[in-house]
Amino acid sequence: MEAVEAIMTRRSVRKFEEKQIPDAILEKIMKAGTYAPSALALQPWAFVVVQDQKFLNRVSDYCKPIMILHMKNAHDGMSDAFRALLESRDYSIYYHAPTVIMVIGKTGSRFREIDCSLCAENMMLAAHALGIGSCWVGSTEVGYDNRELMAGFHIPEGYSPVGTIVFGYPAEKPEAHDKNAPVVTWVR
């Protein structure tokens, strides 16, 4: 798959087959992440690969009521739909994906969030090219301050979370939707 094609056809996947991804494919996805650009070539990223569904369910169950509380005053169509999902007992913020990778960054690195986000995008594009679905999950962020919960991720000292991405074999093929035209200012 050509790079531009991967960018134009990748979609967030939220339904997965129950089949686990082989370690070799996950390693290839993470390696693609490490080829992202980073400020001063510091490469501040590292990864925590989680396949323990009981732990992921525990994190999800912790985060769901906090997300509902944060959204109490949001009443547009998307917010209402997401709140209904969060209120569902069987809903997981990780969409029951077989693998969740937390991208973590060196805590003292000034541009770690930007660098690790670039790394994450490389990972999602590589996954797509390899036939693996993915979706960035922002909901984990509400649990970052819970030390006991975060201890389950076994984050090495000197690193802190930037984001979580779910990965799995897609059980759906989301339709492409129209993208807004970019606002472009040319300075010549």
Please outline what is shown here.
The protein has six helices and four strands; from the N terminus they run H-H-E-H-H-E-H-E-H-E. The protein is α+β, with helices and mostly antiparallel strands and 188 residues long.
Describe this protein's structure.
The protein is an alpha+beta fold. Helices cover 38% and strands 15% of the residues. The chain has a four-stranded antiparallel sheet with strand order 1-2-4-3. The protein is globular.
SSE-based structural type: alpha+beta
Distance between the termini: 35 Å
Low-pLDDT parts are none
Rg on CA atoms, Å: 17 Å
H/E series? HHEHHEHEHE
What's the helix and strand layout?
Layout: H1 3-9, H2 23-34, E1 45-50, H3 53-70, H4 77-87, E2 99-106, H5 112-129, E3 133-137, H6 147-151, E4 159-168
Antiparallel strand pairs: 1-2, 2-4, 3-4
Name some characteristics of this structure.
four-stranded antiparallel beta sheet; 38% helix
